[in-house]
Specification:
The protein is α+β, with helices and mostly antiparallel strands. The chain has helices at residues 22-33, 54-63, 106-115, and strands at residues 9-16, 41-43, 67-71, 76-82, 92-99, 120-129, 132-137. It has one domain (9-137). The protein has a 7-stranded antiparallel sheet with strand order 2-3-4-5-1-6-7, with helices on one face. Strand 3 and strand 4 (76-82) form a beta hairpin. Helix 1 packs antiparallel against helix 3 (106-115). The longest helix has 12 residues, at 22-33. Residues 134-160 are annotated as: Disordered. Residues 148-160 have a biased composition (Low complexity).
Length: 160
């Protein structure tokens, strides 16, 4: 077996519940910017057995207890959509994407901002490179560094 080291970029979205329309935003953003993020398989447990389109993913998310896992095609290997999980998990939900692309890849940045909705409070890109962890906030507008509002669709790198 050939061993190879890869850099994985992790994109995270934090939203106030109920995170309305996340499945539609995900599919629309994938169609426009990163088609590899369209789920080929999905489910709330491994092995991911769900297959289908937008309606099937929406139904599966409605049935999931805390997370719905998605598997796209290379370079998108893993994603997850959070559910409300009930009152024990609090008022914020997180979604994530793991992709083998450079953080400066405009497709990832455009996808990340297109997934953001009216209730998105933070979008961040992070990953591991040379054994150092880093994170870069995306966004324009908002009141806090790295905050993205639903209306913000331009990309601004946050300064350190």
């Amino acid at each position: 077996m050939v061993e190879r080291k890869i850099d994985v970029l992790v994109v995270r979205w934090y939203e106030r519940l109920p995170a309305a329309g996340i499945v539609g935003r995900w599919f629309d953003a994938a169609a426009a910017h990163l088609p590899e993020a369209v789920p080929k398989r999905f489910g709330d447990t491994e092995p991911l057995k769900g297959q289908g389109g937008r309606a099937e993913v929406e139904a599966a998310l409605g049935r999931a207890q805390t997370l719905l896992f998605l598997a796209g095609t290379a370079p998108v290997y893993h994603a997850s959509l959070g559910t409300d999980g009930g009152p024990r998990l609090g008022p914020v939900v997180a979604h994530s994407l793991q992709v083998e692309l450079d953080p400066s890849d405009e497709r990832v940045r455009k996808f990340a901002l297109a997934v953001a909705g009216e209730d998105t409070i933070y979008v961040g890109l992070g990953g591991r490179r040379d054994d150092a962890r880093s994170e870069d906030a995306l966004g324009a507008g908002g009141t806090a560094r790295g905050t993205v509002s639903g209306a913000a669709r331009s990309v601004a790198r946050a300064s350190s």
